[in-house]
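From the pipeline queue, job 12 of 40. The input is one protein chain; the requested action is below.

Action: predict structure.
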Amino acid sequence: MGDAIDKRISVSDLPHFLFSQSKFFTKVQSYDVKDKSYLNIAEGILGDNWEIKRREAWYVAKPHSVELPRHGFKIHISLISSLTPEALKNILPVLAEFGVAFKFLVDAHIQDFFNSQACNKVSSGKFLTAYPASQAEFEAVIEALLTVTEAYYGPYILSDRAYKESRCVFYRYGTFAGNKECDVTGASKPVVINELTGETDLRLPYFQLPECITDPFPCPDDDSESELLNHRYEVVDALASHSSKGGVYLARDKKSGLTVVIKEARPYINRSLLNEHDAISGLIHEAHILRRLEHTGVTPKVVEVFKEWQHQFLVLEHIPFETLNYRDWENHNILINDQGEQALQLCQRYFLLLANIIKAVELVHQTGVIIGDIAPQNILIHPETLEVKLIDLEGAYDQLNEQFYARITSRGFSEYDKNKRRKPTVDEDWQAVSALCVHLLHPVCPLFALNPAIKNTYLSTLVKSHGLPECMSEVAMLLQAAQVDKVKQVIATTLRQLTASAAQTGLFERKRLNLDEGECTQLLKKMADGLAHFIDNPVGESTFPVDYRALSTHPYSVSYGQFGIFYYLRKYTNIVAEPLVQKAIDELMALNMANMPPGLYSGLSGIAWVMYECGYQSDATCLMKLVLKNDLRHDACDLFYGAAGWGLACLQFYSKTQQPEFLQGAKEAAEIITNQLNEHQGTLYYKNLDGQPYSGLLHGNAGIALFFLRLYQVTHNQEDLRLATRCLQFEIDRGERINNELVWRKNYNEKTTYPYLQFGSVGVGCVLLRFYSVTREAKYLALAQEIAQATQGKFCIYPGAFVGMSGIGTFFLDLYRVTKDAQYLREANSIAYRVSLYQCAVGEGVAFPGDKLAGLTTDYATGTVGVGFFLSRLLNDGQGRELFLDPDLSGLETCEQAAKVQLDSME
């Protein structure tokens, strides 16, 4: 999982979760082995006293009698897949003779993935891992393996050191088994590999030994090695995240004094059964393409190509432009808040930039080269002149010389194909430029990989919603059909009209597009059909496709896992899911509860809440009591992972059961939080697990304030209300007015502002409204209305609840419920229409894309169920409780009334 508080991973890590099924996040465990030849070889060599089991991407082979230490030196074997069957027949007898436990990848298909640039740097190249039981055994086994593998080779393993300059035998010191203990987030704790220092096994993309561990095969330092690449280039900075293929660096050319860009390629990366060429071949091919295109002026010039050690380097001129992928255009505020000169300039800029991109692509095509991977990250623009340069051309096809490396694509811009030898076409280049027509307004193109048919509708919606020139849609469709001359005519005509004052009439007149009641009802039905489809056609271990975070922790949570889905099925559909619910409960109860996170959205307390609501009151109550004994309950304070969340669940259970231990549990949660709050100018704030003070509902002060508010409603203790208001006031004070809009940053150390439920403004707004409902202080309502003003009319990248439009729509429904002002209900309807654009067909129903728009999900946080909660409330005019935010405290009122009646009767 990622290191951020929300555990989001980078785009580069997504392929690990999309490997088995390209449209859904799944564990590699669900991968269906294509070829059992590796297993057959192992079974033929190992005797009856060996056990072989499948574990995720691996077959694990272990003699029955072997007991392994927790950590030590382990041996890695790296092989290209074409050599592997022969190599295994030489390697496995050595391991069998020594009785060394080992694991190996299940087949060549997954091996090719581990040898590709899509695999992360730490795992890259690792085909087989052997676990010697002692230092002496390690030294004997690695020497024996060296003897039988001299003819074999594979990618260099970055985390390891090569043994005696072997091309396939490597070693490092590390853990032999993963840690089954989890932390409060549900992630596995790092394994301690040095009991004296507490040092853990950090999986790094370079060789490093723990303190006090010496290398049994020390390498002499090479003092003669130059710090300059090719005795000429001084690396200044890394320009991109370093992949297993190699890095991209900014460097100073000591010979010319100029700044240059250096691209690196490592041998055997990307070599596979379907592609005999490796990353070095790709770099050499890119150099060829760039030399072919040098006269066009739309690509960087080649300085030189050189080899150093095993790596190939391509040196290019440095072009100090911006990458289109990272500009983000800041269009929303201009289009929503400015209907004059700024909006007109934005439209002019849009067409001028598009015209320059088209011109650059045409110049390349005229040389007989097809680009192949036209995408924002491969386009540089000058921020003022809008001059365009095309980069990263290793996937280009030189038609004249019939030279081609491999098919390289970007999701939503070009069609992925496992056949890497399939050459790109001119039409495909223009289809990618057509996708850029959407990206220049809103970066959602990965959606089109899941639902290609929605592209034109999405662009048309952007155009109508912002009153943009209608020809934007026409241009995209013409590019889709490769009618480039017609496109250039339309752009030229439009630019002339945009410079004439008369043409401004009718522009930027926005059209509100709503999802009416019938459409909303129909969409909810299709969403239910989509969920039913997965019951009959399960995806992975969770039945329903869920966010990758559930795959990295446990599959049961309410946010990313099964129980949020179960709650929705029970409350809002007619789907019979009791067998699935009971199966999940049985699996859950069989786990070690002390090792499960207690959190509301992440763990046991939220699961218990949902179980109670779904009719499993006895099991739910028992589970909630286990939360009060969970040692992890002290480790976090926010609403998502920590005490504010499980404390809120305690209040719900106290209301439902009137059992005093739950009220005591809520008070304990309050004490845990209070002890970790920091004072600031009369306010209170919490630094989360990573030391950052976040804004918003789920990880910030707003969620903690909500817990204290609900506690006050139960205890009527003014101190609880004071804590609540002081926590919320810190959040209020951190709001900023930028361009007359009230906004919040994710945390207070970064530039980006967030409007979402999980982080940022609408999460704060939801809490402000609940404070207003309890205290009737007008300032809270006024601030919530100011947040609405800053948020309305905007498109977000994601449709989901936590970091998407459904969460924002939920806030507008809350605001409508409090004020009865119809404008907020209208905005919720408009948001519902925007959300509906993201639906993707599954069977007879639909599902929605989750994080990065990379895979379809059905969970509460990112997928179908979060959308469903919002749309179901919309259909009911905003009425209804929001899960967790509005605990049912009516049981306490009934209890108080009964006590009062009893008191009156005694009088």
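Job complete. The mean pLDDT is 92.
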